[in-house]
Amino acid sequence: PLPPPPPPPLTAQANLKKGLAALPKPLPPKKRLELLHGPSDDFADPAKNPFFDPALGHESASQRNRLAKSLRFNLKGKFIVQADAIRQAAKMDDLKKRIAQSTKKAGLEEQLDVSDKAYKRDLPPDIEWWDTQLTTNHTYDDLDYGLAKIHSSDSAITIYVQHPIPIPPVHSGKQIPPRALMLTQREQKKLRRQSRAENFKNISDQRRLGLLPPEKPKVKPSNFMRVLTQEAIKDPTLVEAQMKRDIAERAAKHIQDNQQRKLTPQARREKIAQQLQLDAAKGIRSCAFKIKYLSHGQHKFKVDKTALQLGLTGLVILNPKFNLVVVEAGAKAIKTFKKLMLTRIDWTNTCRTTSIRTNNTLEEGESHEQQDLSANTCDLIWEGELKDRGFKTWRFKSVVSDSGASEALERGNAGHLWLAATKFKDANDYD
């Protein structure tokens, strides 16, 4: 038998059918949501629909005529200016980020203004306030149109000149005494000898004329035999007793004269207060000290007591980070206080600060453990002259935050000192 015939060759139409069979079947159509109740007539009317926007277009909306746009060329350098503005804004953002990071490390985020107002000045106004009275429409264009109020009846410029009341100067009528001649120590001694010799000569002349009684001889154990020759030979015991009484009288008179010249405690306090007032009248000086630790009772007592004795005004800020002492007074008082803070007080003294109680017991809250003051320092961070005193009293104030310290100092116009103290670094901070 013969073999079966070969299958007929595939045609293009057969290949097309085979490709259509391999395609995925289409998905059934989705069912659309139908509303059982259609919208109301008011909602369908665009004029009554509150949510209709005519700018979006509608069958009932009138078609707007679209104008043909002409070909426009950009000016030279337009996009360069825009790119420069973008780069400048990026630099400003980078600068603000770096400043914010540095202030965050220092703990002063709330005190620095890193906004654009701190770096960019405001644009000038359209018209300055002092020129508004000279223009009609409050614009400088009035000067071009001749509408300036210069020669009009309602102008702020008149023919009259206001002469202020003359005020006499502060130092008028006060005669400044000439400065005394400065003498050397040798010249001062010579002048004192000459004045004493002249006074002694005047008293001697008055005694020769009988105007003053003769002076009693100053008898001493070393010269009574030479001064009282006859009396000493007759009765030496009586002369010696008289000599001792005279010595006692002269000593008592010397002590009495000193007590009379001595000031009473009240007069001494008044004299010291007057000297402090005269010192402050010459000019107010101020200085600020940064102290790392001020927990030592003796240190705090010395600072407080000396400030009260010198009549200082100011504030002591007690903060966990550091302590700040701000004082105001005359030049002499400030010099004495600086010597106390920078020289006299040993800030590294770690002696026992707790007081001895009855039966050597400690009160509640006290302990024998002492704070290590070996790294304690006191630095002068600022010194200068002031017009007037900023603080009225002298006191201590405990503050926890930086904003509270700045606010307390700002009442005495010294808020900048806390920022200066925060940025100040001594030699130990660089190690």
TrEMBL record:
Segments forming domain Pre-mRNA-splicing factor: 49-264
Localization terms from the record: Nucleus
Keyword Ribonucleoprotein assigned: yes
InterPro entries for the chain: Pre-mRNA_splic_Prp3_dom, Prp3, Prp3_C
Predominant location: nucleus
GO terms under cellular component: U4/U6 x U5 tri-snRNP complex
Keywords: mRNA processing, mRNA splicing, Nucleus, Ribonucleoprotein
Ranges where the Small nuclear ribonucleoprotein Prp3 C-terminal domain occurs: 288-420
GO BP: mRNA cis splicing, via spliceosome
Name used for this protein in its record: U4/U5/U6 small nuclear ribonucleoprotein prp3
Organism: Neolecta irregularis (strain DAH-3)
